[in-house]
Amino acid sequence: MLPWIRNLVRPSLFWKIFLWFWLATLITLTSVIFLYSLTGHDNKLVPASDEEAKQLRQAAINIQLRKIIDEYQTGSLLTLNRIPEGLDNTFIIDKNGEDLTGKEVPDVLYHLSSFYRNRNTPAMVIVDNEAFIGPEIVFNRGNYYLLFLREKSPHQFTTVVSYLYHSVSTWHLLLALGISALVCIALTWYLTRPIHQLQRTTQAFARGDLSARAERYLGKRQDEFADLAEDFDLMAERIERIIHSQKRLLSDVSHELRSPLTRMQIAASLAQKTANPESRTHIDRIELEVERLDEMIGELLQMAALERGHVNEDRANFMLNDLLDVIVEDAKFEAEAHNKTVDYHTDGDIAFNGYYSLLARAIENVLRNAIRHTPDDTCVTVSTSETQLGIEIKICDSGYGVSEEHLQKIFDAFYRPTDARERTSGGAGLGLAIAKRGVEANGGNITAYNQQNSGLCVVIHLPKSRV
User: Which among 172, 255, 282, 338 is annotated as catalytic?
Assistant: First the structure.
């Protein structure tokens, strides 16, 4: 499913508010019609429904069967002092406009007759909670009569709805619905727009842009959304200040540790000259740990510089294949010491414009990490390819992989997902973190996934460069 279709059909807040507003509009309209039906006394004429027309025809047939009109024409009906049974609410109007049974003819019947002449269909109207339906033409001995029915009808609401249905065209109804929908959409957009703007700010903040603020998107709003944006900006400012302080502290501490480490290395070298064989073992251990600590501090300084956006080199044009040839050759030398191999293949020459040293360090860290965690007598594969979307460098080992919940965290500093990445094999947990920042500095991104059989694959995506 396309993203815009998925966003359209998902139960978002926009559509919930819009539907509630539209439903409220329709309920309001229905309520107005209902209240009008309760207070209105003279309703408009509306075409009779199929049920009402059938009722009229059935009444006409009954009159014919009972020969009511025949009795009137012979005069026998006029001699009766009462209305025949079943005709209390029936009007049979002759050509003179009089009722055959002598009842007073309501004026509304003349309106129904006029409606019939204009539209050739019976109608219905309610007056004082009484419904008048008709006419139905009844022929008898060469004369015609108009038949009307009267009945109690408390259903004035349905009459108003029926009137609206027959008096308002479909296009007018659609236009009214369209206008109400546009008004509801505009109101919904006004209410949900600040939410999307706040979401844009939070997404930028989550991507690492600590300077992202919501106030610049909301403008001069003075409502609750402005208060929420102000609270978010205050929180973001404090977080930015804390993170910058942490990075500055890390950088300062790393710089300060360099001097005593250098002195320790010099002192260890001097002690090594005068030490006896038993003491030399301990001094060698001290030198090894000092060397590791110095290496970790160097990585910390490099990572801190990358996070601040400090790159101590200029962009250059170079062939990616040449860079990988040098790195793979060095990696093969390290792998052979543990009976491991490195297999490298590429689709062809790939030119790139970027930071040579940063990209080299990133690829080297990933490749050395793969060699470190692949079992003995296995192979690490390195491949490069170029497509219309960009450049891809894939490095896969034959190890045990990483559990799915840790895949996105292995590029975080000091993060070691399992016991397999111990201090002696996995370093301080800075190699992949530095690799990620080096790749991002070159405009790319880095991901990892587990192979179907075994092993972890790290993929570096780089943009195509115009060299």
Answer: 255
